[in-house]
């Protein structure tokens, strides 16, 4: 066999997939850690610490009295969307005293999911404002605690004063398929934004 024939038959090295950094953000106790954990294909990295008596005057547990731990730095997970695309998921801490970390976590992020608990929508206003000010595309994932979604999407959009272009999706942060659908909606938004910009 000629050398040129051997070269022609050699398999091409497989190209590494594109990686996209996505933030999972929202208020304290809305389900960010749960979402990263349920959709990640790897055991997620978590930086959770137990809530203690020292935080009673700082942490607002109204409506989430059963919460026992909180993220103090970040959550990290990964999901392979296709052979060509892998998402790196970074969950932000929700408590106000840790918000200074959001700027560092946002570096290089192409998009975000803002998780909302409709029992406490005000807890996610800061995340919405954060991404709007930085021009980072995001979708809103309304986490149905106890599997319930008591309000229609239009009412939620109005309560959060969201523009029409921001997708609002009902989800269950405990369910992998539900979280996957939220991420797909975000990827669709990123692709549409890139097409408009080009």
TrEMBL record:
Keyword Nucleotide-binding appears in the UniProt entry: yes
SUPFAM superfamilies reported in the protein's UniProt record: P-loop containing nucleoside triphosphate hydrolases (SSF52540)
InterPro entries for the chain: Gliding_Motility_GTPase, Gpn, P-loop_NTPase
A UniProt-annotated Pfam family: ATP_bind_1
Gene3D superfamilies the record matches: P-loop containing nucleotide triphosphate hydrolases (3.40.50.300)
The entry's keywords: ATP-binding, GTP-binding, Hydrolase, Nucleotide-binding
Segment forming the signal sequence: none
GO molecular function annotation: ATP binding; GTP binding; hydrolase activity
Family indicated by similarity: Belongs to the GPN-loop GTPase family.
Protein known as: ATP-binding protein
Lineage: Bacteria, Bacillati, Actinomycetota, Actinomycetes, Kitasatosporales
